[in-house]
Amino acid sequence: MGFTTVERSRPDALFTAVYRGLFAPSFPPGELGSEASLADALRDGSADLFAVVDDAGAPVAAAFGEWSAHARVQLLTYLAVGPAARGGGIGGRLLREAVGAWAARRDPCLVVAEIEDPRAPAHDAHGDPRRRLAFYEAAGAQVLDVPYFQPGFGGPGHRVLGMLLLVLHAAPQLRHGDAVDGEALRTFMEDYLEAVEGAVTADAATTALLEALDRPGGVPMGPWRPGQ
Ligand SMILES: CC(C)(COP(=O)(O)OP(=O)(O)OC[C@H]1O[C@@H](n2cnc3c(N)ncnc32)[C@H](O)[C@@H]1OP(=O)(O)O)[C@@H](O)C(=O)NCCC(=O)NCCS
Fold it and tell me: Which UniProt keywords apply (predicted)?
């Protein structure tokens, strides 16, 4: 069977099939935005979707990303491969294609992704967090040294705590040795919190995260260390 990568910048039948058939089963509900919010992001031009389709046009893998022009940060919001196709190289290929396209189109930019703590338990449908980190590390990802959490759909009480923020690409202008530009990341984080939670609140977790982004010299990145 042949596989082709296609791109969508508007919601359509393929988007619906990706959301319902790939994303909804692959992510815990608290980590996945609503179908309407992803469709809106495609419509307003801030998001794009890459999908790998089989010969019949059915999606077997997809990557959805959101661009913050203000911060010059591209978030790989969701990447999923259908369970039957996992482990066959499709996810790695799609990740390279999507990151390569974003890095070229939006130069200079940072491309980041958020993943669960690798010590979290594995789940049949959602996958194994340790192997997921290994997947991204094999693609060259570096872990930012920040106490990251995914903003909560519905407010701060719904945050996913203890996540990692990865750097998949950093343009030379936004990179300072083994650190990346904290200002770009802070702008990205504030915009992200406002969009998802409605405001940037002054709670302890937000303050710790923003302080970590404000460190002089940028935000250090490197391999994941337990306890990070
Ligand atoms: C993580 C994922 C995108 C990888 O795509 P893939 O096509 O399976 O990966 P590739 O074949 O290119 O690379 C194989 C590597 O992917 C990772 N992987 C494969 N299956 C996995 C699973 N069920 N859970 C987590 N990681 C997995 C492993 O690191 C694997 O290497 P290994 O076989 O040496 O352990 C895919 O497994 C998936 O969709 N998982 C569920 C959803 C998810 O975790 N999305 C990413 C979070 S944003």
Answer: Transferase
Q: Is 102 domain-assigned?
A: yes
Residue 8 placed within a domain: yes
Measured from the CB, is residue 182 less than 6 Å from ligand 1? no
Is 227 inside a domain boundary?
no
Q: Residue 66's domain spans which residues? A: 4-222
Q: How far is the CA of 77 from the centre of ligand 1 (A)?
A: 15
Q: Based on the structure, what is the number of domains in the chain?
A: 1
Instruction: Say if 120 falls within a structural domain.
Output: yes
10-residue mean pLDDT series, the chain (228 residues):
94 98 94 96 97 97 97 98 94 98 97 95 88 97 97 95 96 96 97 96 98 97 84
- For residue 183, what is the domain's CATH number? 3.40.630.30
Rounded distance from Cα 63 to ligand 1 centre (Å): 13
Cβ pair 169, 111 in contact under 8 A? yes
Tell me which residue has its CA closest to atom 7 in ligand 1: 91
Ligand 1 contact via 69 beta carbon (within 6 Å): no
